[in-house]
Amino acid sequence: MELGLMQRRLEDYTKSLFMEGLLDAQFLQLQQLQDESNPGFVGEVVSLFFDDSEKLLNELTSAMDQQIVDFRKVDSYVHQFKGSSSSIGAQRIKNVCILFRKYIEEQNIEACLRCLQQVKQEYYHVKSKLETLFRVTSLLNPIVLKENLKHPLGTDSLSNLCQWLDYFANTSLLL
């Protein structure tokens, strides 16, 4: 598989994240802040988002499991999660958080529990998709750099990458 085809598949995969509504324009703005002096900027920001989100989800779950739910505390966690989701462009998470806050205001425990499950589902979905995006991007970057220097990466590594991208193409993840 040629490098150009692999890059097009990666671009198609990235576009699909926007088409599914997982990401919004804020993610594009993050990407624009990344440059040669800090090529891992977006990955670092998203990694911090993942770490913070795991903690927030644990705190949120614990708060919702209490006999008497402290809605102010729950609202604080959901507000934080909404803000961090917005900052990386995780649109569907942000939208669930907006609905979640409405139910918090109403003190509707059942609806809040449904939103908690939905926000977890959306979080793990976007996390999986972004991890795939960064994994493929990191695999392609050494090839791009080496190809620009007219120095081959090596047939074994290139072959493995091609097989990996073919796997994604065949499972409709990159189409």
Automatic annotation (TrEMBL):
<dbReference type="GO" id="GO:0000160">
    <property type="term" value="P:phosphorelay signal transduction system"/>
</dbReference>
<keyword id="KW-0007">Acetylation</keyword>
<keyword id="KW-0963">Cytoplasm</keyword>
<keyword id="KW-0902">Two-component regulatory system</keyword>
<keyword id="KW-0597">Phosphoprotein</keyword>
<dbReference type="GO" id="GO:0005829">
    <property type="term" value="C:cytosol"/>
</dbReference>
<protein>
    <recommendedName>
        <fullName>Histidine-containing phosphotransfer protein</fullName>
    </recommendedName>
</protein>
<feature type="domain" description="HPt">
    <location>
        <begin position="38"/>
        <end position="137"/>
    </location>
</feature>
<dbReference type="GO" id="GO:0005634">
    <property type="term" value="C:nucleus"/>
</dbReference>
<keyword id="KW-0539">Nucleus</keyword>
<dbReference type="InterPro" id="IPR045871">
    <property type="entry name" value="AHP1-5/YPD1"/>
</dbReference>
<dbReference type="Pfam" id="PF01627">
    <property type="entry name" value="Hpt"/>
</dbReference>
<keyword id="KW-0932">Cytokinin signaling pathway</keyword>
<dbReference type="GO" id="GO:0009927">
    <property type="term" value="F:histidine phosphotransfer kinase activity"/>
</dbReference>
<dbReference type="InterPro" id="IPR008207">
    <property type="entry name" value="Sig_transdc_His_kin_Hpt_dom"/>
</dbReference>
<dbReference type="InterPro" id="IPR036641">
    <property type="entry name" value="HPT_dom_sf"/>
</dbReference>
<dbReference type="GO" id="GO:0009736">
    <property type="term" value="P:cytokinin-activated signaling pathway"/>
</dbReference>
<feature type="modified residue" description="Phosphohistidine">
    <location>
        <position position="79"/>
    </location>
</feature>
<dbReference type="GO" id="GO:0043424">
    <property type="term" value="F:protein histidine kinase binding"/>
</dbReference>
<comment type="function">
    <text>Functions as a two-component phosphorelay mediators between cytokinin sensor histidine kinases and response regulators (B-type ARRs). Plays an important role in propagating cytokinin signal transduction.</text>
</comment>
